[in-house]
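A reminder before we start the practical. When you read a complex entry, don't treat the lines as separate problems. The point of joint prediction is that each chain is placed relative to the others, so the output describes one connected object in space. Small molecules and nucleic acid strands, if listed, are placed in the same frame. In the example below there are two entries. Take a minute to note the order of the lines before looking further.
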Amino acid sequence: MKKELFILSVVVAFSLLTYWLVEPFAHSQMHPHVEIEGFKYSGASDIAEVDNKISKIRKDIEKQKAQETPDSKKLAMLDADMQAAENRREAKKVFWADVERIASLKGDASRGEGVYANCTGCHMEGAAPMGGVIPPNLKTAGALYERQYLIGLIKDPAMASNVDHKFSIVRNHQMDSVKYMVTTDQDIVDVIAYMEASAPKAEEITPKVAFEDACGRCHDVRYKNWTITGTKPSFKDKRDEMAFDIAHLDAQEGIKGYMGKLPPDLSMYIRSRGEHYIKAFVEDPQQLLLGTSMPRVGVNAESAEKVIAYLEEAGDPKKAERNRIGTYVMVYMIFFIIVAFLWKKQIWRDLH
Amino acid sequence: MAKFTKATSVKDWLNQRLAIEKVEKVMASEYWIPKNINFLWAMGMVLAITFALLLVSGIFLLMYYQPNVETAFDSVNYTIMQEVGFGWLWRHIHAVAASVVFLIIYIHMLTGIYYGSYKKGREMIWISGMLLFVTFSAEAFSGYMLPWGQMSYWAGMVITNLFSAGSLELNGVVEWIRGDYVPGQAFLNRFFMLHVLLLPLAIIGLIGIHFAALRIPHVNNQDGEEIDFEVESKKYLDGDKAGSKVIRFANDFMSKDMFVVSIFLMFFFYLVFWNYGFAMDPVNFDPADGLVTPAHIYPEWYFLWSYEILRPFSKDLGLIAFAIAQVIFFALPFMDRSDNVAPANRRGAFKIWFWLMVVDLIVLTAMGKLPPEGAFNTIGLIAALVFFALWIALPFITKSEKKL
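Here is the predicted structure of the whole assembly.
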């Protein structure tokens, strides 16, 4: 008996060691851990990303200089990259400090309603696509998004959503015109106060609505019949269905043009990426996929939970059933072990 | 023709035609197993049970799975996992069992190596077991293609590419295996056929041979002692159960087997419900996309050691090393030049050989998964070289082993 337990412990120890090496340890090496800030949008990760880039360029410069005959053309290019990156870091620092300062102002919802009239030119029911995307309906925006983020977005959309790298030279962000409509800091907080006051209460927003409004304009979820053109109904007539599908394909084409690539269907993302990855990605897409065209969406912590809940419903709806059945099976197994043990004992009584 | 008399009972009727009593004796009550064994001897039964779980869960999955590149992913992840009642349970059982079966196979193999259960008449047990290992590997690989996720697609791409044989550039062979230039419908269909028909048939046949190979040399025991089964079984049947060195397969050995199986199943179902990530790679929950290569491509954990033997060398050398690693374990009974059938800890240098091999396989497994950069590369290369050094050393250290 003692010997068997010793052998068992050797087998278990080697198995666990192997498991630890190929699972937790290997994954920690392949996917470095990313912290979640808690959907506060202080800009810390935005600045850290540029810092990383700067230290990378610095290493390349040192490498180039260490060579016997440094390539002067390459060096000049690296110097220019360095200059651009340093400017970007400075711009981001100034921007997020501004956001911080504006956030301390108090908004006036009734004044904000007047300012909000500027927004409804684009943000309305049945809005036309602008450069590939349809401007979102803002009914739920005041409850879905973090105030700090909204301040940033109105001040400078590309900066707040951390996609300024896409717009630096050749074209403007689709929403750039807001800079000429909502011009003062007070206007910004006023219009947000109005949006917050006119939005439904947070507890009235379901996971489905949170997902559809925050993510569903770009991402399909086919396991929930969600498409970027709305929920796909069941059609009686094949022609109606085809018409729906064509409109859907057209909308995808538009987004593809804007993003460079079709945003993925998120049906199985809760299993393929997991909760932590999705949260970190939603908070700042750049920190996990540098250079991605996905803008930061700016959901608050509560909405992020709702988005996760929706994705769980789509990709892992049997979780509760799994836990329940699992518990029953464990209880059954304990009985199985007891019976098997007693049977063995009875039979081996004569054998020893 | 045999003589048949009027049957006195159903049992007698069957006995005259099928000799069921004789069969029961041969297969169970008078199939003699040494008494001096530990729980590692139950791994055969654990494997049989796990194979049964794979077979049964596979039959249920087969009712809804669609081997079509357009619908395969959704038939698994939506139809089976969400729409079909308890479909998720069958899939989790199938996926976890497919992974855990290799853990048990490795324990079973290493038990055989440790106790010297592969020589002096037991060579065919070892060889048929190795054939089972290879067939199980093919079965696991072909099954991994079926959900048609990112890892299915890219593992299929990488592994079939190996058949171009490096610098020989036999691209025609690769196309012939795939039925296309890249993994596609033809590829999925043929791996589906292999997974649900040809390979399971081969496995069932090989299990039969593996069991049959045990008959004449008998099961080994903890001390490698040569037992006179005639004398000992007579002692047992005469009533001296405690004094006999053998026990019946059923129910004596079976009762111990089932106790081990019960513990194993508890562990297994814990994995099925709460810790299945190691067997169901998250990356494979992304649908196959020939235009997007995953950041890290690695095989399932049980192939990692041989994958790492492929990886640290140049293309051609790596392929040769890989090919040797796949078959070298077949040669074990012939490379061990010692006559001793005994646990490794009594065999001098072989004891060190055994534990070095275990550690080396684990190191190779870990390095096979880690990204091939920096220190991991060096450790992987050393471990691969140690693997071959151990095999080269084996005949020499066993030849000079003292006779026990």
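Discuss with your neighbour: Residues 39 and 301 of chain A are 5 Å apart (CA to CA). What might explain this?
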